[in-house]
Amino acid sequence: MKQHDVAIIAGDGIGPEVTTEAFKVVRAAASRFGFEVRENYLPLGTNHYLETGEIFPDARFEEVKQHDAIYLGAIGDPRVPVGLIEFGIIAKLRFELDLYVNLRPVKLYDARLCPLKDKTPDDIDMLIVRENTEGAYSGMFGHAHKGQALEVATQTMVYTREGCERVIRYSFELAKLHGRKRVTLVDKANAVRAQDIWTRTFAIVAADYPDIETDHAYVDAACMWMIKNPEWFDVIVTTNLFGDIITDLGASLQGGMGIAASGNINPGKVSLFEPIHGSAPKHAGKGTASPVAAIMAGSMMLDYLGEKEAAEAIEKSIISLITQNRIRGVRTGEHGTAEVGDMVVEQIAQYAPA
Ligand code: IPM
Ligand code: MG
């Protein structure tokens, strides 16, 4: 039997609750489709830090790298300084494993989940590819005269030719693989002139894909078009910071943080899957958070591990539960967290491929 080793960081806040449901579903899919997922839970996150002073020890990091994939629930906790755990765990994994693609599908499963009027699942179905290792997240920042009237703060956005090229190429390959017709570059090269490197690199890579249309939008306009005409977007490729921003907007179009999932990918290498939502500390421990985003991150993980049928079965099960109104919504409190996981498990057991 095929076996996949997964390192699981359930993390902070609602992370553990939604991760429990995600793996309930992963196990159901594994038994239905005949493979095994070995779950290795790692005690990392704010509680672990507060108890031990450890954020992500080197030995742990080496251990994580030995898996086929990594699954992350959520991190972030107001008891510790902003960014400490985020950068110590998620940013460390993204940078040190060189997970240069952040793939965030935005797909509306049912019109009632969409805050826009008159938009249907036909209108909202895009794949957003966020560059995940450079730009404003490169860590090149500093302060001079800190705390004084003369204080200066700078943070440099870094774009390398290789960094742009590989993520743009991934986007065209993704379009090809999924039969998508257009790739849109989203940047702000009119004001952030350094992003001209994106414009030029995009043109060079696009020339290798004559069957795929290209398009361009400045990020401010892209925000407007995503609301007015989301149907225009198919595959989007963009910088790290703009990708962070427009994928929250994208998540809202599909029903909110309770449904949106992502993959942090270095193709062919150990990659990381997570719901886009954060740890939502005020909802933690209540068993009312939507696990759909976490379950969909599990589906993306299985797809990446080559378990295409299982991944599709999970997504189709969720779609069917939503369209039948058995999952009424994906907002906190709409259902019990475990109730949703149980429904998906039951649906997978009955799943018959079309
Ligand atoms: C995300 C998050 C992270 C980011 C935070 C937690 C650092 O917002 O994955 O979108 O900005 O990348
Ligand atoms: Mg974000």
Automatic annotation (TrEMBL):
GO terms for biological process: L-leucine biosynthetic process. Homodimer. Keywords: Amino-acid biosynthesis, Branched-chain amino acid biosynthesis, Leucine biosynthesis, Magnesium, Manganese, Metal-binding, NAD, Oxidoreductase. It comes from Rohdeia mirabilis. Its EC number is 1.1.1.85. Belongs to the isocitrate and isopropylmalate dehydrogenases family. LeuB type 1 subfamily. The keyword Nucleus does not apply. Pfam families: Iso_dh (PF00180). SUPFAM superfamilies: Isocitrate/Isopropylmalate dehydrogenase-like. This is 3-isopropylmalate dehydrogenase. One of its GO terms (molecular function) is magnesium ion binding. SMART domains: Iso_dh. The keyword DNA damage does not apply. Residues 5-344 form the Isopropylmalate dehydrogenase-like domain. Its cofactor is Mn(2+); Mg(2+).
